[in-house]
Amino acid sequence: MDKGYEVAGSIVGKMGTGTTIRARVLDENGDLLEDLGVIVGKRTKTQGNRTRAALARLAKNYRGGKHGSG
Amino acid sequence: MAADDVLVVNTGRELTVDALLALAATAPIYLQWGVSSQAVAAADVDLIDKTGCNETPRATGVDSKVSNYTYRVVGTLTKTVAAAIIRELGTFNDAGSDLGPPVDGDTMFLRAMFDAISLNVGNAIEFTVDTLVTAT
């Protein structure tokens, strides 16, 4: 008699999705009215860089006394 | 002894994108919009509020593979009936025949909710929907 065993079961794996949606508003002629960029999902690298650059400018101006009542 | 592990590998992720594209006319390329700001839930099967959005039920988009793991749908919806403040977007695998809830074989792929976009009659939005298939 075979004394071996049989193993039955399943392997559960995971898979996911990440979604980004961009939007451009057009007029009745199909011409661009406004590019809204990413409206859902992660920011693009370019947008992140722009934000970092803007923050850096603010910090520099603040240190330079351009902001605040001093 | 190594710990048990399993992962959908990169070639498997790409296979998923290819499978979506292979659906052709039954791929989730049909776009519809709505006005609800209700949070998105995994159990959603339709847009929440299509009031004032009774344009031709859905716009037919074009799908493509923009990277090995990214499935893209680009489509344009146009306001033809009345001005509205758009807050949600859904993609479906069927063009739909009316504004009622999806029927058999008509399935929502994703629902998105976003900041208000005010549109007048004649305005349109070109949506680009990128779905990245991740390993976890």
Q: Care to describe what's here?
A:
The complex is a heterodimer of chains A (70) and B (136). Chain A has 1 helix and 2 strands; from the N terminus they run ββα. Residues 44-48 of chain A have low confidence and may be disordered. Chain A has one helix spanning 45-63; strands at residues 16-26, 32-40. Chain A is an alpha+beta fold. Chain A has a two-stranded antiparallel ribbon. Chain A starts with 15 loop residues before the first strand and ends in a 7-residue tail after the last helix. Chain A has a domain at 21-63. Chain B has 136 residues and is mostly beta strands. Chain B has one domain. Chain B is built from 1 helix and 7 strands; from the N terminus they run H-E-E-E-E-E-E-E. In chain B, strands 2-1-5-6 form a 4-stranded antiparallel beta sheet, with no helix packed on it. In chain B, strands 3-4-7 form a 3-stranded antiparallel beta sheet. Chain B starts with 9 loop residues before the first helix and ends with a strand. The mean pLDDT of chain B is 92. Chain A binds chain B through residues 11-28, 30, 33, 36, 39-41, and chain B through 6-8, 12-13, 16, 76, 89, 110, 112-115, 117, 119, 122-136. Strand 1 (16-26) of chain A pairs antiparallel with strand 7 of chain B, so a sheet runs across the interface.
Envelope shape of chain A: elongated
The average pLDDT value of chain B, as a whole number, equals 92
Structural class of chain A: alpha+beta
Number of helices of chain A: 1
Uncertain residue ranges of chain B: none
Share of helical residues of chain A: 25-40%
List the helices and strands and how they pair.
The complex is a heterodimer of chains A (70) and B (136).
Chain A: E1 16-26, E2 32-40, H1 45-63
Antiparallel strand pairs in A: 1-2
Chain B: H1 10-22, E1 30-34, E2 59-60, E3 62-67, E4 70-78, E5 84-92, E6 108-119, E7 124-134
